[in-house]
Amino acid sequence: MSTPSPFPQAASHKPQASLGILGGGQLAQMLALAALPLGVRVLVLEPDPHAPARECAEVIQAPYTDPAGLERLCGCDAVTLEFENVPTLALAALEGRVPVRPGGELLERSKHRAREKLALHGAGAATAPFVVIEAAADLDGALERVGGRGVLKTCELGYDGKGQVRIGSQAELEGGWAALGHVPCVLEGWVSFGREVSLAVARNAGGELAFGGLIENVHQHGVLRTSLYLPGDPAEARARDLARRVAQDWQLEGLMTLEFFELPGGGGPGGELLVNEVAPRVHNSGHLTQDGGGLSQFEAQVRAALNWPLQDFAPLLPCAMVNILGWRQGQEPDWPGIYRLSGARLHLYGKAHQPGRKLGHVNLVAPDEGTLRRRLSELEALIPAFIP
Amino acid sequence: MSTPSPFPQAASHKPQASLGILGGGQLAQMLALAALPLGVRVLVLEPDPHAPARECAEVIQAPYTDPAGLERLCGCDAVTLEFENVPTLALAALEGRVPVRPGGELLERSKHRAREKLALHGAGAATAPFVVIEAAADLDGALERVGGRGVLKTCELGYDGKGQVRIGSQAELEGGWAALGHVPCVLEGWVSFGREVSLAVARNAGGELAFGGLIENVHQHGVLRTSLYLPGDPAEARARDLARRVAQDWQLEGLMTLEFFELPGGGGPGGELLVNEVAPRVHNSGHLTQDGGGLSQFEAQVRAALNWPLQDFAPLLPCAMVNILGWRQGQEPDWPGIYRLSGARLHLYGKAHQPGRKLGHVNLVAPDEGTLRRRLSELEALIPAFIP
């Protein structure tokens, strides 16, 4: 495994390692912020001139399929990404010329719900029951096969609750599929879960693995509102085991976040974990690793993409995160209250305000669980929830 | 106190707050890295085209006294600094046009040893005994008055052990003063201290105070090698009390770090604290606040300079820091070993290599003191000490 000195020549003004990133949003911004102190030069390919990464990285402002932009990325030691919906054409142009981590095959899976679910089963991880809907004939008997109630989701391009319809009857199923434009979909059986949890795993090209902690997530209207990390979650060991299996089976190079439904256990936490979806990158739920003590998910992805040595990146302290979405009139967060709240750290992405848009988050850290939960209630009161 | 929304207009692509920084070295780089997630735009005035701050802030490459550069700084909400030896002319040009924090009077003290020591006494803080040497006549009896043994230091421009001569006799005193060019000096009495410790205090223009933790420092050949923070240091309360007195008496606006000699106590820690020197800014010893959980010294200085609400910034976890100085052949740090050491985080500044130059540091964090001390020994073995 290659772990070069960041000082290859005595008089070099440039660090040796360089990392290309496809996409220049907030995840790329935070990846670049984590890369900078490691001596890693970051080069971003992104069409939007106002993309957040411009504040701390060199941005090539061009379409993802721009040949000159892709050519420049080929000069990096490795290329990683901040979102999975990168055009296949762009990935194909890079392939064989520069290591893309995660690679094309893994990305093709994680950008397509049906492929992802089948590959999860192939790796020995359970999901909710599902039926793939590609033609009208697939609708027959589908609802019964997933338990009579479910959610119809497009195979591609869905995120934050978009491209989803709840289904409770055959008529809703037919109407829902029409509403989604008769594109390929997955009908997922309704899961009465106890908790939504997530866990990230990093794996480098040498096969070395590292894990984040088990994070509990609360969504509102399909968008993540709050994440919570408490050391010693009883479900962590099982989630790590599943993440290890998938990372190894899929030959992950980079970082991957698994979202799980935890089924209600026998009178307490500890029920079965079903994989809901997989993000082949850092994830909103892992932002709390920036301030919980220890490595962040961002540093873990940078290291894994460069095939550097890894370290586990579960926070050392109890910590939490609350997202800041663009607000409606009179619902602006209480900024001075956030600044004053002990252990609260604001992270803004520098994006233009727009109602419902993810503009930033606040991480919260505390010496113990009781203090964290008390402060988290205060923090949630300072950031009004966004109602679409 | 003004704590504006970072989103003043619905369609703004620019955050509202902006901070000017005099100097573009590693401290400015890390201030800018802390400012970015707060939505604070940073503008740096710095003559060196290779200065580390260029990686994450807008840098005006010009002399500190460049009128156009100073004019642009006047457009910021406030100006702060990363080193105290800013030309008085530059400060005078800014005064009255933009808040400079810390302000001119405090800076004039902290860049001049004799003025600083007199002002410390004025605030009720003790120092080692000293005699100001401005003319040959001041040499008479000076050594006796400081206890027969001491260190002669230039009043201005000394740092990292430069501009200092150890004095044990009248002949050495006369020779030492000649070697220092007969510039104004302070002869300080030799202090047989138990520990060197430091503590930072932030104060905003509204008078609100916040404190860092008590950090223990080990120097080698006049340059900081290792800093250590353990929660609950018995000397912390006294150091905070002294820092509060000085910050209030000097009407600090910004952040200030006090370096202390702790005299040996009666059979244990807890002896008197003498102020060695004061830095009107973030300090090498406080770098460990980046990774110890909670606010960093850098965020504290940004907030204080902008007159935002403050928070204490002592780390929540035991943590430490080891500096990386430019090495001699065969003495390069063991980078893979650093990457692998649990809880170690590398921070490189992007400076050209030069033997003895501060190029970066490694922060180390651990769940408890025993683990921290064990890992710190490992870390120190991975970074050979620099022998001048």
Tell me the greatest interface. Answer: A-B, 54 and 54 residues
- Identify low-pLDDT runs of chain A: 9-14
Instruction: Summarize model confidence as the mean pLDDT of chain A.
Output: 92
What is the helical fraction of chain A, as a range of percent?
25-40%
Architecture (CATH level 2) name of the largest domain in chain A: 2-Layer Sandwich
Rounded Rg of chain A: 21 Å
Please tell me about this protein's structure.
The structure is a homodimer of 388-residue chains. By secondary structure, chain A is of the alpha+beta class. The first copy, chain A, has 3 domains: 18-100, Rossmann fold (3-Layer(aba) Sandwich); 129-189, Dna Ligase, domain 1 (2-Layer Sandwich), CATH 3.30.1490; 195-382, 2-Layer Sandwich (D-amino Acid Aminotransferase, Chain A, domain 1). Helices cover 25% and strands 25% of the residues of chain A. The first copy, chain A, is built from 11 helices and 17 strands. Chain A has helices spanning 26-35, 67-73, 88-94, 104-110, 113-122, 142-145, 170-179, 236-249, 297-305, 335-340, 369-382, and strands spanning 18-22, 41-46, 58-61, 78-81, 130-133, 150-154, 164-167, 185-189, 195-203, 209-211, 215-220, 223-229, 254-262, 273-279, 319-325, 344-348, 358-365. In chain A, strands 9, 10, 11, 12, 13, 14, 15, 16 and 17 form a 9-stranded antiparallel β-sheet that branches. In chain A, helix 1 (26-35) crosses helix 9. The longest helix of chain A has 14 residues, at 236-249. The radius of gyration of chain A is 21 Å and the shape is globular. The first copy, chain A, starts with 17 loop residues before the first strand and ends in a 6-residue tail after the last helix. Chains A and B meet through helix 10, strand 16 and strand 17 of A and helix 10, strand 16 and strand 17 of B.
